[in-house]
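User: I'm putting together a small comparison set for a docking exercise, and I want a reference complex before I start. The sequence is below, and the ligand is pseudouridine-5'-monophosphate. Could you produce the 3D structure with the ligand included, as C-alpha coordinates?
Assistant: Of course. I'll restate your input first, then give the C-alpha coordinates for the complex.
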Amino acid sequence: MSEVESGRMRVAEEVSSALAGGGAVVALESTILAHGLPPGRNRKVAASVEDAVRAAGAVPATIAVLDGRLRVGLDGADLDRVCDPDADLAKLSARDLGPALALGRDGATTIASTTLIANAAGIGVFGTGGLGGVHLPAPGQTASWDVSADLDVLGSTPVAVVCSGVKSVLDIAATIEVLETRSVPVLGYRTDTFPAFYRRESRFGVPWRVDTPASAASVVAAHRSRGPGSGVLVVNPVPAEHELDADLHDRLLAEGMARVAASDVRGGDVTPVLLEHFHTASGGASLDANEALVLDNVRVAAEIAVELAAQRP
Ligand code: PSU
Ligand code: MN
Protein backbone atom coordinates (compact mmCIF):
# COMPACT_ATOMS: atom_id res chain seq x y z
CA MET A 1 0.00 0.00 0.00
CA SER A 2 1.34 3.43 -0.78
CA GLU A 3 1.01 6.71 0.96
CA VAL A 4 -2.65 7.65 1.31
CA GLU A 5 -3.71 11.12 0.21
CA SER A 6 -7.29 12.03 0.75
CA GLY A 7 -8.55 15.56 0.75
CA ARG A 8 -6.40 17.53 3.12
CA MET A 9 -4.82 14.54 4.90
CA ARG A 10 -1.68 12.60 4.00
CA VAL A 11 -1.04 9.36 5.87
CA ALA A 12 2.45 7.80 5.63
CA GLU A 13 2.63 4.44 3.92
CA GLU A 14 3.80 2.51 6.98
CA VAL A 15 0.93 3.94 9.02
CA SER A 16 -1.78 3.31 6.44
CA SER A 17 -0.60 -0.30 5.91
CA ALA A 18 -0.62 -0.95 9.66
CA LEU A 19 -4.12 0.52 10.00
CA ALA A 20 -5.43 -1.43 7.01
CA GLY A 21 -4.08 -4.66 8.53
CA GLY A 22 -5.57 -3.97 11.97
CA GLY A 23 -2.10 -3.45 13.43
CA ALA A 24 -1.08 -1.34 16.40
CA VAL A 25 -0.44 2.36 15.71
CA VAL A 26 0.35 5.11 18.22
CA ALA A 27 -0.24 8.79 17.50
CA LEU A 28 2.42 11.26 18.70
CA GLU A 29 2.07 15.04 18.94
CA SER A 30 4.38 17.73 17.56
CA THR A 31 3.75 20.66 19.96
CA ILE A 32 5.84 18.92 22.57
CA LEU A 33 8.69 18.96 20.00
CA ALA A 34 8.29 22.46 18.56
CA HIS A 35 7.23 24.25 21.75
CA GLY A 36 7.92 21.98 24.72
CA LEU A 37 11.59 21.04 24.31
CA PRO A 38 14.65 23.09 23.32
CA PRO A 39 16.16 22.87 19.81
CA GLY A 40 18.50 19.91 19.38
CA ARG A 41 17.06 18.01 22.29
CA ASN A 42 13.65 18.02 20.57
CA ARG A 43 14.99 16.23 17.49
CA LYS A 44 16.60 13.52 19.61
CA VAL A 45 13.37 13.03 21.54
CA ALA A 46 11.39 12.92 18.25
CA ALA A 47 13.53 9.96 17.17
CA SER A 48 13.63 8.21 20.53
CA VAL A 49 9.85 8.30 21.06
CA GLU A 50 9.36 6.72 17.64
CA ASP A 51 11.97 4.09 18.55
CA ALA A 52 10.23 3.38 21.86
CA VAL A 53 6.91 2.83 20.07
CA ARG A 54 8.54 0.46 17.59
CA ALA A 55 10.38 -1.43 20.33
CA ALA A 56 6.99 -2.16 21.91
CA GLY A 57 5.65 -3.53 18.64
CA ALA A 58 3.58 -0.63 17.28
CA VAL A 59 3.95 1.85 14.42
CA PRO A 60 4.54 5.51 15.39
CA ALA A 61 2.52 8.24 13.67
CA THR A 62 3.83 11.69 14.52
CA ILE A 63 1.23 14.28 13.58
CA ALA A 64 1.66 17.87 12.37
CA VAL A 65 0.33 20.30 9.77
CA LEU A 66 2.81 20.89 6.97
CA ASP A 67 2.17 23.01 3.87
CA GLY A 68 -1.48 23.27 4.82
CA ARG A 69 -2.02 19.53 4.99
CA LEU A 70 -2.77 17.21 7.92
CA ARG A 71 0.21 14.87 8.09
CA VAL A 72 0.00 11.53 9.89
CA GLY A 73 3.42 9.82 10.07
CA LEU A 74 6.48 11.98 9.39
CA ASP A 75 9.80 11.08 7.81
CA GLY A 76 13.21 12.29 9.03
CA ALA A 77 13.14 15.46 6.93
CA ASP A 78 9.64 16.32 8.19
CA LEU A 79 10.80 15.83 11.79
CA ASP A 80 13.82 18.09 11.08
CA ARG A 81 11.37 20.76 9.96
CA VAL A 82 9.11 20.40 12.99
CA CYS A 83 12.13 20.62 15.33
CA ASP A 84 13.90 23.49 13.54
CA PRO A 85 13.55 26.71 15.58
CA ASP A 86 13.97 28.76 12.39
CA ALA A 87 10.91 27.06 10.89
CA ASP A 88 9.02 28.78 13.73
CA LEU A 89 6.02 26.45 13.61
CA ALA A 90 2.80 27.85 15.04
CA LYS A 91 1.15 26.03 17.94
CA LEU A 92 -2.11 24.75 16.47
CA SER A 93 -4.92 23.82 18.81
CA ALA A 94 -8.22 22.39 17.56
CA ARG A 95 -9.61 25.82 16.66
CA ASP A 96 -6.60 26.53 14.45
CA LEU A 97 -6.79 23.55 12.08
CA GLY A 98 -9.28 25.10 9.63
CA PRO A 99 -7.38 28.36 9.26
CA ALA A 100 -3.99 26.59 8.94
CA LEU A 101 -5.31 24.25 6.26
CA ALA A 102 -7.07 26.93 4.26
CA LEU A 103 -4.14 29.35 4.45
CA GLY A 104 -1.53 26.70 3.65
CA ARG A 105 0.42 27.07 6.91
CA ASP A 106 2.75 24.84 8.89
CA GLY A 107 2.09 24.10 12.52
CA ALA A 108 2.70 21.80 15.47
CA THR A 109 -0.36 20.06 16.88
CA THR A 110 -1.37 20.00 20.56
CA ILE A 111 -3.09 17.09 22.28
CA ALA A 112 -6.46 18.57 21.20
CA SER A 113 -5.62 18.85 17.50
CA THR A 114 -3.50 15.67 17.41
CA THR A 115 -6.41 13.73 18.94
CA LEU A 116 -8.82 15.03 16.29
CA ILE A 117 -6.44 14.17 13.45
CA ALA A 118 -5.58 10.74 14.90
CA ASN A 119 -9.27 9.90 15.19
CA ALA A 120 -9.94 11.06 11.62
CA ALA A 121 -7.11 8.79 10.45
CA GLY A 122 -8.48 5.80 12.42
CA ILE A 123 -5.83 5.80 15.17
CA GLY A 124 -7.23 5.10 18.64
CA VAL A 125 -4.20 5.41 20.95
CA PHE A 126 -1.97 8.44 21.55
CA GLY A 127 1.06 8.73 23.84
CA THR A 128 2.44 12.05 25.07
CA GLY A 129 3.79 14.07 28.03
CA GLY A 130 1.32 16.29 29.85
CA LEU A 131 -2.31 17.12 29.21
CA GLY A 132 -3.46 20.75 29.03
CA GLY A 133 -5.96 21.64 31.73
CA VAL A 134 -7.58 24.42 33.71
CA HIS A 135 -5.18 27.27 34.43
CA LEU A 136 -5.07 28.87 37.88
CA PRO A 137 -6.46 32.39 38.16
CA ALA A 138 -3.98 35.27 38.18
CA PRO A 139 -3.73 37.23 41.45
CA GLY A 140 -6.96 39.19 41.85
CA GLN A 141 -8.88 37.02 39.36
CA THR A 142 -11.51 34.52 40.45
CA ALA A 143 -11.17 32.34 37.32
CA SER A 144 -8.62 32.34 34.50
CA TRP A 145 -11.09 31.16 31.83
CA ASP A 146 -8.03 29.51 30.32
CA VAL A 147 -9.21 25.92 29.95
CA SER A 148 -7.27 23.83 27.46
CA ALA A 149 -9.19 22.59 24.42
CA ASP A 150 -7.49 19.24 25.22
CA LEU A 151 -10.30 18.64 27.72
CA ASP A 152 -13.16 19.39 25.33
CA VAL A 153 -11.68 17.30 22.53
CA LEU A 154 -11.11 14.33 24.88
CA GLY A 155 -14.74 14.73 25.90
CA SER A 156 -15.95 14.21 22.34
CA THR A 157 -13.34 12.06 20.58
CA PRO A 158 -12.86 8.31 21.20
CA VAL A 159 -9.06 8.26 21.50
CA ALA A 160 -7.12 6.87 24.48
CA VAL A 161 -4.43 9.33 25.58
CA VAL A 162 -1.54 8.20 27.79
CA CYS A 163 0.16 11.03 29.69
CA SER A 164 1.69 11.88 33.08
CA GLY A 165 -1.27 13.93 34.26
CA VAL A 166 -1.07 17.70 34.22
CA LYS A 167 1.59 20.09 35.46
CA SER A 168 1.30 21.57 38.88
CA VAL A 169 1.20 24.98 37.14
CA LEU A 170 -2.44 24.12 36.45
CA ASP A 171 -5.43 23.79 38.74
CA ILE A 172 -5.34 19.99 39.03
CA ALA A 173 -8.57 19.72 41.05
CA ALA A 174 -10.50 21.80 38.50
CA THR A 175 -8.97 19.81 35.63
CA ILE A 176 -10.15 16.53 37.18
CA GLU A 177 -13.65 18.01 37.66
CA VAL A 178 -13.84 19.07 33.99
CA LEU A 179 -12.73 15.59 32.88
CA GLU A 180 -15.59 14.14 34.92
CA THR A 181 -18.08 16.61 33.43
CA ARG A 182 -16.89 15.71 29.93
CA SER A 183 -17.35 11.98 30.73
CA VAL A 184 -13.68 11.09 30.29
CA PRO A 185 -12.71 8.05 32.39
CA VAL A 186 -9.32 8.57 34.04
CA LEU A 187 -7.34 5.36 34.58
CA GLY A 188 -4.38 5.49 36.94
CA TYR A 189 -1.74 3.25 35.40
CA ARG A 190 -0.27 1.37 38.37
CA THR A 191 -1.22 4.31 40.60
CA ASP A 192 -4.13 5.46 42.79
CA THR A 193 -3.10 9.10 42.49
CA PHE A 194 -3.44 11.61 39.68
CA PRO A 195 0.16 12.40 38.70
CA ALA A 196 1.51 15.96 38.44
CA PHE A 197 3.92 15.57 35.54
CA TYR A 198 7.32 16.26 37.18
CA ARG A 199 6.03 14.67 40.39
CA ARG A 200 4.57 11.17 40.66
CA GLU A 201 1.72 12.26 42.90
CA SER A 202 -0.67 15.14 43.35
CA ARG A 203 -3.07 15.51 46.28
CA PHE A 204 -5.85 14.02 44.17
CA GLY A 205 -6.97 10.47 43.52
CA VAL A 206 -8.07 8.77 40.31
CA PRO A 207 -11.51 7.15 39.90
CA TRP A 208 -10.09 3.95 38.37
CA ARG A 209 -6.84 2.03 38.39
CA VAL A 210 -5.40 -0.50 35.92
CA ASP A 211 -2.18 -2.45 36.33
CA THR A 212 -1.55 -3.99 32.92
CA PRO A 213 -1.74 -2.93 29.26
CA ALA A 214 -4.29 -5.72 28.71
CA SER A 215 -6.57 -4.37 31.39
CA ALA A 216 -6.22 -0.78 30.08
CA ALA A 217 -7.05 -2.07 26.58
CA SER A 218 -10.15 -3.89 27.87
CA VAL A 219 -11.39 -0.68 29.47
CA VAL A 220 -10.75 1.30 26.28
CA ALA A 221 -12.59 -1.30 24.17
CA ALA A 222 -15.54 -1.44 26.59
CA HIS A 223 -15.71 2.35 26.81
CA ARG A 224 -15.77 2.57 23.02
CA SER A 225 -18.56 0.03 22.72
CA ARG A 226 -20.77 1.36 25.50
CA GLY A 227 -19.43 4.78 26.38
CA PRO A 228 -20.61 8.28 25.57
CA GLY A 229 -18.26 8.90 22.65
CA SER A 230 -15.51 10.42 24.74
CA GLY A 231 -11.87 9.44 24.97
CA VAL A 232 -10.06 7.70 27.84
CA LEU A 233 -7.23 9.27 29.81
CA VAL A 234 -4.55 6.88 31.07
CA VAL A 235 -2.27 8.57 33.60
CA ASN A 236 1.19 7.10 34.10
CA PRO A 237 3.53 8.73 36.67
CA VAL A 238 7.07 9.81 35.70
CA PRO A 239 9.52 6.94 36.38
CA ALA A 240 10.63 7.24 40.03
CA GLU A 241 14.31 7.72 39.23
CA HIS A 242 13.50 10.78 37.07
CA GLU A 243 11.01 12.47 39.40
CA LEU A 244 11.97 16.09 40.10
CA ASP A 245 13.06 16.83 43.68
CA ALA A 246 10.07 18.20 45.63
CA ASP A 247 11.76 21.37 46.92
CA LEU A 248 13.27 22.21 43.56
CA HIS A 249 9.90 21.63 41.94
CA ASP A 250 8.07 23.91 44.37
CA ARG A 251 10.62 26.70 43.95
CA LEU A 252 10.54 26.57 40.14
CA LEU A 253 6.76 26.54 40.17
CA ALA A 254 6.54 29.64 42.38
CA GLU A 255 9.12 31.50 40.26
CA GLY A 256 7.48 30.54 36.96
CA MET A 257 4.02 31.58 38.12
CA ALA A 258 5.36 34.92 39.37
CA ARG A 259 7.09 35.49 36.06
CA VAL A 260 3.90 34.88 34.08
CA ALA A 261 1.85 37.04 36.45
CA ALA A 262 4.28 39.93 35.99
CA SER A 263 4.22 39.68 32.18
CA ASP A 264 1.56 40.03 29.54
CA VAL A 265 1.90 36.40 28.42
CA ARG A 266 -1.54 34.96 27.67
CA GLY A 267 -3.39 31.98 26.25
CA GLY A 268 -1.36 29.35 24.42
CA ASP A 269 1.93 31.10 25.26
CA VAL A 270 1.62 30.49 29.00
CA THR A 271 2.64 26.81 29.01
CA PRO A 272 5.74 27.25 26.80
CA VAL A 273 6.95 30.18 28.95
CA LEU A 274 6.55 28.18 32.16
CA LEU A 275 8.24 25.15 30.61
CA GLU A 276 11.16 27.27 29.46
CA HIS A 277 11.61 28.59 33.00
CA PHE A 278 11.60 25.06 34.44
CA HIS A 279 14.13 23.87 31.88
CA THR A 280 16.62 26.72 32.27
CA ALA A 281 16.30 27.17 36.06
CA SER A 282 16.50 23.45 36.92
CA GLY A 283 19.83 23.03 35.15
CA GLY A 284 18.28 20.43 32.86
CA ALA A 285 16.73 18.18 35.54
CA SER A 286 13.21 19.04 34.36
CA LEU A 287 14.21 18.19 30.79
CA ASP A 288 15.44 14.78 31.85
CA ALA A 289 12.18 14.19 33.70
CA ASN A 290 10.19 15.39 30.70
CA GLU A 291 12.03 13.13 28.28
CA ALA A 292 11.85 10.11 30.59
CA LEU A 293 8.11 10.43 31.15
CA VAL A 294 7.31 10.88 27.46
CA LEU A 295 9.34 7.79 26.56
CA ASP A 296 7.59 5.77 29.24
CA ASN A 297 4.14 7.03 28.18
CA VAL A 298 4.61 6.19 24.51
CA ARG A 299 5.83 2.72 25.50
CA VAL A 300 2.69 2.18 27.59
CA ALA A 301 0.56 3.58 24.74
CA ALA A 302 2.19 1.13 22.32
CA GLU A 303 1.60 -1.79 24.70
CA ILE A 304 -2.07 -0.82 24.98
CA ALA A 305 -2.35 -0.45 21.19
CA VAL A 306 -0.82 -3.92 20.74
CA GLU A 307 -3.34 -5.37 23.21
CA LEU A 308 -6.25 -3.60 21.51
CA ALA A 309 -5.17 -5.02 18.15
CA ALA A 310 -4.89 -8.52 19.68
CA GLN A 311 -8.25 -8.27 21.50
CA ARG A 312 -10.10 -7.19 18.34
CA PRO A 313 -12.94 -9.64 17.66
N1 PSU B 1 2.07 20.13 28.82
C1 PSU B 1 3.36 19.76 28.82
N2 PSU B 1 4.08 19.84 27.67
C2 PSU B 1 3.52 20.26 26.51
C3 PSU B 1 2.14 20.63 26.52
C4 PSU B 1 1.46 20.55 27.70
O1 PSU B 1 3.88 19.38 29.84
O2 PSU B 1 4.21 20.35 25.48
C5 PSU B 1 1.47 21.05 25.24
C6 PSU B 1 0.61 19.89 24.70
O3 PSU B 1 0.67 19.93 23.29
C7 PSU B 1 -0.79 20.27 25.15
C8 PSU B 1 -0.71 21.78 25.05
O4 PSU B 1 -1.81 19.75 24.36
O5 PSU B 1 0.58 22.13 25.51
C9 PSU B 1 -1.78 22.47 25.85
O6 PSU B 1 -1.72 23.84 25.54
P1 PSU B 1 -2.88 24.82 26.04
O7 PSU B 1 -2.79 24.80 27.53
O8 PSU B 1 -2.53 26.13 25.43
O9 PSU B 1 -4.16 24.23 25.55
MN1 MN C 1 -4.92 27.65 27.14
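Residues 169 and 257 are 7 Å apart (CA to CA). The chain is about 45% helix and 15% strand.
User: Thanks, that's exactly what I needed.
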